[in-house]
Amino acid sequence: MFNETSRLSNGIEIPKLGLGTWLLDDEQASQAVQDAIAIGYRHIDTAQAYENEAGVGEGVRLSGVAREELFITSKVAGEAKSYEAVSASINESLNKLGMDYIDLMIVHSPQPWAEFREEQRYFEENVDVWRALEDAYETGKVKAIGLSNFLQDDVENILAHAKVKPMVNQILAHVSHTPTELIEFCQENGILVEAYSPIAHGAVLDHGEVKAIADGYGVSVAQLCLRYDLQLGMVVIPKTANPDHMKNNADLDFVISDRDMDALKRVESLESYGEHDFFPVFNKK
Questions:
Q1: pTM
Q2: Do 55 and 26 touch, CB atoms closer than 8 A?
Q3: Dihedral (C-alpha) 234, 9, 84, 60: value to the nearest 10 degrees?
Q4: Longest Cα pair distance anywhere in the chain, in angstroms?
Q5: Class of residue 123 by CB neighbours under 10 A (exposed 0-12, middle 13-18, buried 19+)
Q6: What is the DSSP letter of 142?
Q7: By three-state DSSP, how is residue 9 classified?
Q8: With helix as H, strand as E and coil as C, how does 60-88 read?
Q9: Residues that are catalytic
Q10: 109-167 pLDDT, tens per residue?
């Protein structure tokens, strides 16, 4: 699995399997990154909002693997909605990571998190945000640029004004929550879709129907969920600090049948993400 990549619209290869680091502090992130790289991971995902970029950078430096062999993603904080704020934040991310460049820089949210999915859409401000990412891209500070949590009209707004098209839209996508129209819109426009929380932060692990399908392949529910997103053409970035889970998440050498893919697409939406319902994306704000 570690050698499988997707190609971004600018020709850069991105590993299809990455390690998410949300809710890990610097110390935990450093160890998780070291463990993941030792296992074979080459794609690490962090964000300014995670407050662990320093830990991720330390983990990379202590891993013993050359920087150019790794693909590191970070995200501009949702609250940064001006050209100046975004430019400064990218420089800050580079400093915290201790890196000369970031492989992929993403706009974390079309709105500040406190206003997520509310009436104010920040279309004009996001054009300025995107311009700052374009300039960072053109100077080589970042090797690719993208979006996260952007709905179709949010993406269309960027496309209408962009000199450089978004290369990625990182969205919530998992069994029981598959935004098919948004995924297909992005793919039709040459935008790779990345699935965060591809195992629904564990909330789907005890789902009877999903477990029955996983049992039919002799795999775990987590493995089935990751394979599902991959077969829909997405990159997956499951978050874990557990080396055993990291290994399990990479053991995906099976193919889900068309019949089972259709069944998984029809799984009803989860009523709750449990302890993670506090986050705007999960509480369906």
A1: 0.95
A2: yes
A3: 60
A4: 53
A5: middle
A6: B
A7: coil
A8: HHHCCCCHHHCEEEEEECCCCCCHHHHHH
A9: 50
A10: 999 999 999 999 999 999 999 999 999 999 999 999 999 999 999 999 999 999 999 99
